[in-house]
Automatic annotation (TrEMBL):
This is Dihydrofolate synthase/folylpolyglutamate synthase. Residues 293-411 form the Mur ligase C-terminal domain. It catalyses: (6S)-5,6,7,8-tetrahydrofolyl-(gamma-L-Glu)(n) + L-glutamate + ATP = (6S)-5,6,7,8-tetrahydrofolyl-(gamma-L-Glu)(n+1) + ADP + phosphate + H(+); 7,8-dihydropteroate + L-glutamate + ATP = 7,8-dihydrofolate + ADP + phosphate + H(+); (6R)-5,10-methylenetetrahydrofolyl-(gamma-L-Glu)(n) + L-glutamate + ATP = (6R)-5,10-methylenetetrahydrofolyl-(gamma-L-Glu)(n+1) + ADP + phosphate + H(+); 10-formyltetrahydrofolyl-(gamma-L-Glu)(n) + L-glutamate + ATP = 10-formyltetrahydrofolyl-(gamma-L-Glu)(n+1) + ADP + phosphate + H(+). The keyword Transcription does not apply. Functions in two distinct reactions of the de novo folate biosynthetic pathway. Catalyzes the addition of a glutamate residue to dihydropteroate (7,8-dihydropteroate or H2Pte) to form dihydrofolate (7,8-dihydrofolate monoglutamate or H2Pte-Glu). Also catalyzes successive additions of L-glutamate to tetrahydrofolate or 10-formyltetrahydrofolate or 5,10-methylenetetrahydrofolate, leading to folylpolyglutamate derivatives. Pathway: Cofactor biosynthesis; tetrahydrofolylpolyglutamate biosynthesis; Cofactor biosynthesis; tetrahydrofolate biosynthesis; 7,8-dihydrofolate from 2-amino-4-hydroxy-6-hydroxymethyl-7,8-dihydropteridine diphosphate and 4-aminobenzoate: step 2/2. Residues 48-193 form the Mur ligase central domain. Coiled coil: none annotated. Keywords: ATP-binding, Folate biosynthesis, Ligase, Magnesium, Metal-binding, Nucleotide-binding. Pfam families: Mur_ligase_C, Mur_ligase_M. Its EC number is 6.3.2.12, 6.3.2.17. It comes from Halomonas citrativorans. Belongs to the folylpolyglutamate synthase family.
Length: 428
């Protein structure tokens, strides 16, 4: 049996013939063998699904709950630099020892007769649930990996279920019909338990799925709302409801640096868990929340993992205009199962100079392929490089201190550059 976390992660790659195999039967059987269904993994569980905005919603639910004194654990994916990022307990990454013990428990259960095959994600989810269950938490916040109905996270019953946004992504698994995608995401809803809808433009299938389960529906723009305006960093107000129908309101909330729709959704979800939201604790949490790789600024560089048109549109709207004579660069690397043309079209009005980079692996687009697509949209491609690191090195001498650089298109692109220092131009 593997000893170190690195050995376990390598072992997980060998457990199943395909990387993604949606369905709950295998993972549920192993979870039962592990005893994960004997008692709740936490006093309360919030599960978050959606195409975009899951990570920021999880981060804000976590931050606000901890600011109120709750013990909170989270599970999210994928990670950027360290696998440990996926499991956090009271704001701290799970240590190697906890994860190794979790994987040992998963493996022991998996190998009981008859042996059960698990994907990398399924084994990782079971390990995370075991780690969270040991921590005696007030709240566990779980992020769905892909879809909802058949995602491994959905073996757990949510006390409050959240759907953030619905857009096209993972078309080979979820299809391209928005209503059907909405139904898949809504698969995390449970009878009579609150369903929080975090966008005013969700397809009707999401609310219909909740209503069919007699799940109370809390929709942005109806049950809860906020006063923030697009691209405004001014204080904003939130209003929402408790599970008993009492009205709540919080004023003078700070810009969290993340989508305010998701902040409002996080507050509504927490109100439904029974947490009594106080103004000071909420302000402190939103002012300090941090989520790497989401509109993350490092000097003149902005790093965002957006990889579909919906996310790219948000990035384009929120990119500040560079100083006079400055250029807006984009370093882009993408996987070939994404809507590349849709992402380029969303970003193109804001980008003056493109740097295309190759991502390794059979799913990675080459830089030259991306360049051809960008040129077809009328974009100016300044460089092509064999990797994100090589692209940054090649463009470093071309930058001025008035330039701004967006790094985007994939978790892989952002992770590669977060792992190294980024050059800051010194010449004007």
């Amino acid at each position: 049996m593997p000893k170190s976390l690195a050995e376990w992660l390598q072992h997980l790659e060998t457990l199943h013939p395909v990387g993604i195999d949606l369905g709950l039967e295998r993972v549920s059987r192993v979870a039962e063998r592990m005893g994960l269904f004997k008692r709740p993994i936490a006093n309360r569980v919030v599960i978050v699904a959606g195409t975009n905005g899951k990570g920021s919603t999880v981060a804000m639910v976590d931050a606000v709950a901890r600011a109120h004194g709750w013990h909170v654990g989270t599970y999210s994916s994928p990670h950027l630099l360290r696998y440990n990022e996926r499991v956090r307990i009271n704001g701290q990454e799970a240590d190697d020892a906890c994860l190794v013990e979790g994987f040992e428990r998963v493996e022991q259960a998996r190998l009981e007769a008859p042996e059960i095959s698990l994907t990398y994600f399924e084994a990782g989810t079971l390990c995370a649930l075991w780690c969270l269950a040991q921590a005696e938490l007030d709240l566990a916040v779980l992020e769905v990996g892909l879809g909802g109905r058949l995602d491994a996270v959905n073996i757990i019953n949510a006390d409050v279920a959240v759907v953030t946004t619905i857009a096209q992504d993972h078309a080979s698994f979820l299809g391209t019909d928005i209503a059907q995608i909405g139904l898949e995401k809504a698969g995390i809803f449970r009878p009579l338990r609150p369903a929080v809808l975090g966008s005013e433009s969700l397809p009707g299938s999401v609310a219909d799925a909740a209503i069919a389960l007699a799940a109370p529906v809390y929709r942005l723009g109806l049950a809860f709302n906020h006063s923030a305006e697009e691209n405004s960093h001014l204080p904003w107000c939130w209003s929402g409801l408790t599970a008993t129908g009492e009205t709540l309101s919080l004023d003078a909330l700070p810009d969290p640096g993340l989508p305010v729709d998701n902040a409002a959704t996080a507050l509504q979800a927490l109100a439904l868990t029974g947490l009594t939201l106080t103004l000071k604790a909420t302000q402190n949490a939103l002012a300090s929340v941090n989520l790497p790789g989401r509109m993350q600024w490092i000097g003149q560089w902005c790093l965002d993992v957006g990889h579909n048109p919906h996310a790219a549109t948000y990035v384009a709207r929120h990119l500040p205009v560079p100083p006079d004579t400055g250029r807006q660069w984009a370093v882009i690397g993408m996987l070939n199962d994404k809507d590349v043309d849709g992402v380029i079209a969303a970003l193109a009005p804001r980008i003056t100079d493109w740097v295309c980079v190759t991502l390794d692996g059979e799913r990675g687009h080459t830089a030259n392929e991306l360049a051809e697509r960008i040129k077809a949209h009328g974009g100016c491609v300044r460089l092509c490089a064999d990797s994100p690191e090589a692209g940054v090195d090649a463009m470093a001498e071309m930058l001025t201190d008035k330039d701004r650089i967006l790094v985007t298109g994939s978790f892989f692109t952002v992770a590669a550059l977060l792992a190294r220092s980024l050059p800051q131009a010194s010449r004007s």
